[in-house]
Amino acid sequence: MAGAAVLRRLTWQVARVAELVDETAQTRTIALEPPDWRGHRAGQHVDVRLTAEDGYQAQRSYSIASAPEQERLEITVERLPDGEVSTYLVGELRSGDGLELRGPIGGYFVWEAADGGPLLLLAGGSGVVPLMAMSRHRALVGSDVPTRLVYSSRTIDDVIYREELGRLAAGGSGFEVVQTLTRAQPAGWTGYSRRVDADLLQETAWPAADSPLAYVCGPTSFVEVCAAGLVDLGYEPERIKTERFGPTGG
Amino acid sequence: MEMQELKLDGNAIAGLLGEVFALEPTAGRGTCEGCGAVNAVGALHVYVHGPGVVVRCPSCESIVLRVVRARGRYLLDLRGLRVLELADPA
Description:
The complex is a heterodimer. Chain A has five helices and eleven strands, in the order βββββαββαβαβαβαβ. Chain A is an alpha/beta fold. The termini of chain A are far apart. In chain A, 45% of the residues are buried. The model of chain A has no long low-confidence stretch (mean pLDDT 94). Chain B is mainly β. A five-stranded antiparallel β-sheet of chain B has the order 1-4-5-6-7, with no helix packed on it. The mean pLDDT of chain B is 91. The A-B interface holds A 2-7, 10, 45, 47, 61, 102-103, 105-110, 219-221, 224, 241-248 and B 1-2, 4-12, 14-15, 18-19, 21-27, 40-43, 48-49, 87, 89-90.
C-alpha cells in the first residue's frame, strides 16, 4: 500500500501502563496502551523517554516483544546495573502510570511471515525480545516457516519467556528451540552448556544450502561471534540481520 | 568496559534519523565513500557515546555519517557517504 513505509513524523505520546509482568529476576514485561498507535512489524522498537522534575531527560530504545497481531503493545526490559532508565522501568513503574514513548521505529531488523525462511533466530540474553515478537507473529498468522531459535542465557532462571517458548516448540508447526546455559545448568540439563561459538552454530544452524534467513540480537560481542560464524558457514551476508544492544546508559 | 561493547548498529539510531528523514532510513542502503561497500543503514556500526553520533562502514570502518543534535538544530556530516538509497513507498 502506498505510504506504508513513509514515516509519519515521530511524535512522543504518553502511553498508559496496563500491566506489569515479571519475567525473571531482572526482566519485566510492560504492557502499554498508547493513545495513537498505527501498528508495528515484528522486530521494531520504541523509544522511551523519562523526564525528571528538574527537566533532565533520559531516552532509551526498547524492542517490542508483542506480535503485531496482539491487542496490546508490550516491551520487555532488562534491569542493567546502574541503568538510570531500566532501573526505573523494572523497579519503580506501576500499573496505571503514564510512560512517554514514540514509535514504532526501525525497518531493517524486521521479519514478516511473507519473508519466509528457513528462519534462524540467534538470541543472547534479552536479545530474545525482538525475536520473540517474530516468533509470536509467526505463530499468530499460522506460518509454518521452519524456524529455529538458538537462545543463550546465563542460567535457567535467566531464560525469558521460558514457558511460552516451550509451548511454541510443542505446537508442531516447525518451531524449534535450542537452549544454551553459559554459567550454570540445572541437574539433568540436556541443552548446551557453553557460549555460542562456531562449533555450536555448525551443529544448530540450518545448512547454508537452504538459503536461510538469520536474525541475530544480543550484546555486541555475541552478535559479532554469531555473524562471523554464520558467514563462515556460508550464509549470505545480506541474509544475516543483526541488532546489537550495549550499555547505552541503561 | 571493552571498546567493542560501545559499538552498536544502525538500528540504534532509527529514532534519531527518523527525526530528520521522511522515509524509513534504516532499511535503506548506504555506499561507503571510502571503500565502495554497500550496506543497509541498520547494519552500519554506530558509536553513540561521544558528543555526537558517529557511524562507520562495517566493511572498512571509515566514518560514513556523523550526527549532532544540539541547541535546536541538527548537524549532519555526510562526507563519507557516497550514495544513500531509500525505498520509494509510492
